[in-house]
Amino acid sequence: MAPWDDYGQQVLIHGFSEAVKTTYGGKTIAWRIEKAEYRKLKLFFMSVLWRASISQQTFYKRISLGPFEDRLRGMILNEDLGDSQDFSIVLARFEDVEIRAMLDPHPEKFDGINYCRFYLPGFIVLSSNSKCNTASPDGLRCCHANKSVSAFDCGRT
């Protein structure tokens, strides 16, 4: 396990129980955790992406960073976060946190950006596979260097 796995797990499992809801028109559209360790959380997501890319397990067969794999490995080893657009993250949360499906990760293109989509218990994580701007339409990002973390509502199916 990477040294940031425990922290990522703490934030995703326990941190959102204390999250502040953002509503619009009476509906929850996002959650925000004000005190999160940006460095640890970003390194957690970066390490998940890299490990999926190098894995030989069938579950991760569709994840490949290609030429970005070595760059990401070096960044992780040096604990170099890059800037906010390097391997950036969009985090979406199911309002019904009992949804705990673990589906295989896969590549996805959204708004012209190449992502790797991961399903973690109660969350969907879109991790860009290089450098790009992943700001949401309202300018929010999942992880902010000012130590807040936001998750957007996945909606109900």
Summary of the model, kept short:
This protein has 157 residues and is α+β, with helices and mostly antiparallel strands. The chain is built from three helices and seven strands.
Shape: globular
Which series of helices and strands comes N to C?
HEEHHEEEEE
Q: Report the strand count.
A: 7
Portion in beta strands: 25-35%
Radius of gyration: 15 Å
Q: Please state the oligomeric state of the protein chains shown.
A: single chain
- What's the pLDDT, averaged over the residues? 80
Largest β sheet strand count, sense and barrel closure: 7 strands, mixed
Strand order of the largest sheet: 1-2-7-3-6-5-4
Helix content: 10-25%
Count of helical segments? 3
User: Any idea how many domains?
Assistant: 1
Residue windows where pLDDT falls under 50 for at least 5 positions = 136-141, 143-148
Structural class: alpha+beta
